[in-house]
Amino acid sequence: MEQQVSHDLLKRIDSPGDLRELPVSLLPEVCSELRDMIIDELSRNPGHLGSNLGSIELTVAVHYVFNTPYDRIVWDVGHQAYSHKILTGRRDRFCTNRKLNGLCPFPSPAESEYDTFTCGHASNSISAALGMAVAAAGKGEDDRHVVAVIGDGSMSGGLAFEGLNNVSSIPNNLLIILNDNNMAIDRSVGGMKQYLLNLHTSEGYNRFRNLLSRKLYNWGVLNEERRKSLIRFNNSLKSMLMQQQNIFEGLNIRYFGIVDGHDVGALVRVLKEIKDMKGPKLLHVHTRKGKGYGPAEESATVWHAPGLFDKETGERIVKDTEGQPPLFQEVFGNTLLELARQNDKIVGVTPAMPTGCSMNILMKEMPGRAFDVGIAEGHAVTFSGGMAKEGLLPFCNIYSSFMQRAYDNVIHDVAIQKLNVVLCLDRAGLVGEDGPTHHGVFDLAYLRPVPNLTIASPYDEHELRKLMYTAQLPGKGPFVIRYPKGRGVLVDWECPLEKIEVGRGRKMKDGTDLAVITLGPVGNDAARALARAEQDTGLSVAHYDLRFLKPLDQDMLHEIGRNFKRIVTVEDGVLMGGMGSAVLEFMSDNGYAPNVKRLGIPDCFVQHGTVQELRKICGIDETGIYNAIIQMLDQ
């Protein structure tokens, strides 16, 4: 029989104020109950497990020491904030986490006053928290503390370094907590990872230094300018003696650590000691992803978001996929390896997502030709551009929502020079439970205006393989291929690698009464919908797979413009500026005036839920497309 956990202490905590009423001696028990609750709930309702188990003690300590929500806590990424949600009045609703109309997957100011800033994309916490700290000082709120909690590889992001640079140059009292677990989703990479592993500073030394500086201030000997000069001199002296440069103190940011991130008592003690220190500070905390649950500790990448599992045995409950189509990412990964075997110029690039995008397949067989650059999307694109300039052929795989962070790099470092970089946008379209920060619905609209780009989306797995083959042929220039999260439609997904004529769509079905134009895998839903509509009405519906958003198949669109007065466009992207807009522009520019019904993502941020639930809400599931076709046929 499954053991029932009482959660007696958690039941008494409806806010951090209740937590602060407890003696420090009971905090380990609070952490234990939080760990039990998260494991229990996520075994039934999947979410981010490993990162949340690793941050429990840190979360408890932060809320215990700081006067939240008056004091501001800014979480980076936010997939480690389940304990935060439970402690801040959402314990009884935690069972709705990531479900339609339930708790948001990441901290959201729209959900709680304790959620101070939007989370979801890495590396923004330092910049946002610095802005809050400066604002507090400007309003005379000298008693308001601001804390940025950053970890899970986010320190490798360029925005984090931009924030650190500014922290060192603007008067502020910001506290940065570096939750160092040596992980992003896969293992962290790069020099910063190794640096953090080797960094050590004496806690006793920092206590003595703080005491001395307070006395010097009280005696009138020390002012702000002298303090900075002393810090610079002291840091130089310490670096010489230790034969190690501290990058944070090199930026005039006081450094404390390394502290055991699973000793809640020690965390409370250190946070109390440093919370009121003037000037920017960084507390380096070492944690273990998956802490307290054996399977998650042993395989942190797998247990980052493991899906359903048996919490007693640690066995993941994996659905039988025998006879089902593969994931699009798996087709990408296997096809990339196949192409790399044939073309020695091909290399792979991904920002911290080798497993998520299946580039680990290439990494395993050809480790010297695949590069995980860490959470650094802009760098990934420009790095790819540099390799392309020297004759290599990079396949740069970035989730669609994260490619937003590299927009200028695409324009400035790839498109202007017409470099042959293949930008593979995984997780394009609605992605489901991760919600608005992760939906890849903007890429068609934001990439369409960029000159020199080819933009394509495959109808199915065969088309994905052919587009990948086409993109690596000589002279193709910057080539964008977008495809969704989840499975395709073809069990027999392997096919010969054949060239597709760039800018050439396909007529999937003849018809006379209405034309349906689709782009990408959503065309499969449209095909089923129009078949139903024909059966129910007796009318004839044509179906065109546009294939390329750029360049458009002008011959095909002229054919549609001449022969149809009613058109339905369907896309898994925003309506404003997307494929439907491109069709309308073409019709207007060429003197056609059909009645066009555009289906896609409306002008709002779509919340979280299953992909099917969200597609239904947006009217781009089979039923929504069917209803639109019927309405157009009735006109």
Mind explaining what this structure looks like?
With 635 residues, the chain is of the alpha/beta class. The chain has a 7-stranded mixed β-sheet with strand order 9-8-10-11-13-12-17, sandwiched between helices. A 5-stranded parallel β-sheet has the order 1-2-3-5-4, with helices on both faces. A 5-stranded mixed β-sheet has the order 14-16-15-18-19, with helices on both faces. The protein is globular. The chain starts with 15 loop residues before the first helix and ends with a helix. Homodimer. Catalyzes the acyloin condensation reaction between C atoms 2 and 3 of pyruvate and glyceraldehyde 3-phosphate to yield 1-deoxy-D-xylulose-5-phosphate (DXP). Mg(2+) binds at residues 152, 181.
The overall strand count is 19
- What would the average pLDDT be, to the nearest integer? 91
Please tell me what the overall shape is: globular
Strand fraction equals 5-15%
Query: Terminal Cα separation, in Å?
Result: 62 Å
- What portion of residues is helical? 40-55%
Main sheet properties: 7 strands, mixed
Number of helices: 25
Spatial sequence of strands, sheet with the most strands: 9-8-10-11-13-12-17
Residue stretches low in confidence (pLDDT < 50, at least 5 long) are 192-202
Structural class: alpha/beta
Using only C-alpha atoms, the radius of gyration works out to: 27 Å
Family: Belongs to the transketolase family. DXPS subfamily.
Function: Catalyzes the acyloin condensation reaction between C atoms 2 and 3 of pyruvate and glyceraldehyde 3-phosphate to yield 1-deoxy-D-xylulose-5-phosphate (DXP).
EC number: 2.2.1.7
GO molecular function: 1-deoxy-D-xylulose-5-phosphate synthase activity
